[in-house]
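Hi, here's the filled form for the chain we discussed.

Project: internal
Contact: R.S.
Residues: 142
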Amino acid sequence: MRKAMVFLAALGLLGAGLAQDGARLYGQYCQGCHQPSGQGVPGAFPPLTGLETFFKSPEGRSYLIWVTVYGLQGPLKVGTATYNGIMPSFAHLKDEEVAALLNHLGQSFGNKNPKAFTAEEVKAARAKKLAPQEVLKARPER
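And the returned structure, exactly as it came back:
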């Protein structure tokens, strides 16, 4: 019984650590453009709010992984605004870090991600190599 409690406590700490890691990664790589609030900069960087549609479908989840790993380039319509910039690739991040970052986005800025991203899911999506322009073309309808 004691071993089981120690194991469960360790899992809880690991989960808390991954959540903090996702927030740290967001602060390091994302908030300069998308802002600490996730609201972006009008006309320059899109908001990271309202991503539920992407979180709910396999295509949407792959798209979010590809955006993070490979970047994004070309005209992107979000709501009534169109953004035409370049998001850099973060391919140097480990699969676990990409999952932690996306899990942070999924629980921040009013987003509600019902299913956590895993390193295995990131690894599988990363197997398809894409250019930033191809990522844009793979964007599912919202």
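Let me know if anything looks off before we file it.
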